[in-house]
Amino acid sequence: MSAPGDAISDEAPHLLVVDDDTRIRSLLSRFLSEHGYRVSSAASAAEARSRLEGLTFDLLILDVMMPGESGLSLAKSIRGGDVPVLMLTALGETNDRIAGLENGADDYMAKPFEPRELLLRVASLLRRRKAAPAVAGEVRFGAFTFHAGRGELRQGEDVVRTTERERDLLKLLAAERGGPVSRQALAGQDAASERAVDVQINRLRRKIERDPSNPLLLQTVRGAGYRLVVE
User: Fold this and answer.
1) Helices 71-78 and 94-102, interaxial angle, to 10°?
2) 83, 107, 130 — which closes off a domain?
3) Is residue 4 part of a domain?
4) Is residue 75 part of a domain?
5) Are 37 and 118 in a shared domain?
6) What is the full DSSP assignment across the chain?
7) Confidence label for 227 from pLDDT (cuts 50, 70 and 90)
8) How far apart are CA 75 and CA 80, in angstroms?
9) Number of folded domains that form the chain
10) pLDDT value at position 101?
């Protein structure tokens, strides 16, 4: 990454900051630009949709509370795409944060936050996007097939919509071919995200399990993490 003050490379990750607060939007854009990122911004979900149609982004930083369409609604509508979502929320309650994760966010931060932590969260999400482990061919579990190279989950002939984060989890789990993967490994290098892993696993279970409360395919391994029961 470029040092603060350096010219930003055309190859630098391109971030989209969506916040209706002009001051916050400006501060975030300037701060991230100073640390080597290309940054575009939008003041509403509608403006963000327009930008997403015309440009390719590596990460979306999205405020939850906005007039008109909320950040939660926008995140839910683009869930299954290739752009990871970091949600910013002034809501401190656990249920509000869980709602963000359930609606397609890959991570969240509560306002006010430390700028250095924002940089760490952004870098962690970008690493996940670029450095998912390679798994040869396909793995099968139950009625599902996951192709790690394409990041594609199918149930029979039908493609199952998944988030970037869910694909990363499946790649990590598939790489172990039925062995357990720790919560720390699933969280990646950002240890603060370990608390979100359970929520993300539960969200994935709702897509692949007949009874998510009694999982047969994506099992909890007590004291060790989770395992995907592959054929």
Assistant:
1) 30
2) 130
3) no
4) yes
5) yes
6) -PPTTSPPPTTS-EEEEE-S-HHHHHHHHHHHHHTT-EEEEESSHHHHHHHHHHS--SEEEEES--SSS-HHHHHHHHTTSS--EEEEES---HHHHHHHHHTT-SEEEESS--HHHHHHHHHHHHHHHH-PPP--SEEEETTEEEETTTTEEEETTEEEP--HHHHHHHHHHHHTTT--B-HHHHHTT-GGGHHHHHHHHHHHHHHH-SSTTS-SSEEEETTTEEEE---
7) very high
8) 10
9) 2
10) 72
3-state secondary structure 49-60: HHHHHHCCCCEE
Token duo for residue 59: 């990460």
| CA–CA separation, 192 and 160 (whole Å) | 28
Do 110 and 154 lie in a common domain? no
Give the pLDDT confidence of 105-119 residue by residue, as tens digits: 888 888 888 888 999
Which residues constitute the domain of residue 188?
Answer: 138-228
Residue 18 near residue 61, CB atoms below 8 Å: yes
The predicted-structure confidence for 164-202, as pLDDT tens digits, reads as follows: 888 889 988 988 878 888 888 888 655 446 678 888 999
Q: Averaged over 65-74, what is the pLDDT?
A: 86
Q: What is the pTM of this model?
A: 0.57
Mean residue pLDDT of the chain comes to 83
Burial class (CB in 10 A: 0-12, 13-18, 19+), 133: exposed
> Among candidates 196, 211, 140, 208, which has minimal Cα distance to 165?
196
**What is the pLDDT averaged over residues 121-137?**
69
